[in-house]
Design brief:
Strand content: 25-35%
Oligomer: single chain
Number of helices: 4
Mean pLDDT: 77
CATH architecture: Beta Complex
Largest sheet: 4 strands, mixed
CATH superfamily: SET domain
CATH class: Mainly Beta
Shape: globular
Order of helices and strands: HHEEEEEHEEEEH
Structural class: alpha+beta
């Protein structure tokens, strides 16, 4: 298994461009994937405080009405092969406030530090790919 290393000390934009390049994808490829709804499911019960709103990073992003503490599950990203809004709308950040982690077999966002209400929830896309690679998930 080959872990994908992100560039260090880059802006969010530079880091995102590095991610696209390392995945041999274009912005158009990502947009097509993100706008596909064939694998979308409703957000699981207990996460109705998670919403999608206009993002200052890109398009729409993921937000919470509640404060989330470090180590708390922010929201499941996938259930099996289906994506929740967290798997579809979480934007990339070089220094994110959440990370992907398999919790009881479900790919979830877990808070790295305290996330305030209405703060955009972010993840480093390299971490998502590496998490999936570690657990043998299809990228």
């Amino acid at each position: 298994m080959q872990v994908i290393e992100p560039l260090k000390n880059k802006s969010n934009s530079e880091s995102y461009d590095s991610f696209l390049e390392s995945m041999n994808m274009t912005e158009s490829d990502i947009q097509n994937f993100m706008h596909s709804v064939k694998d979308n499911i409703h957000t699981p019960d207990g996460f109705d405080h998670i919403t999608v709103c206009k993002s200052s990073i890109a398009g729409r992003g993921l937000f919470s009405d509640n404060e989330t503490n470090a180590g708390d599950i922010v929201c499941p990203m996938r259930t099996g092969t289906d994506r929740t809004i967290a798997g579809r709308y979480t934007n990339h950040a070089e220094n994110p406030n959440s990370r992907p982690e398999f919790v009881e077999g479900i790919l979830s966002l877990v808070a790295i530090n305290k996330i305030r209400p209405k703060e955009e929830i972010t993840v480093n896309y390299f971490d998502v790919i590496n998490c999936k690679l570690l657990y043998g998930e299809r990228v």
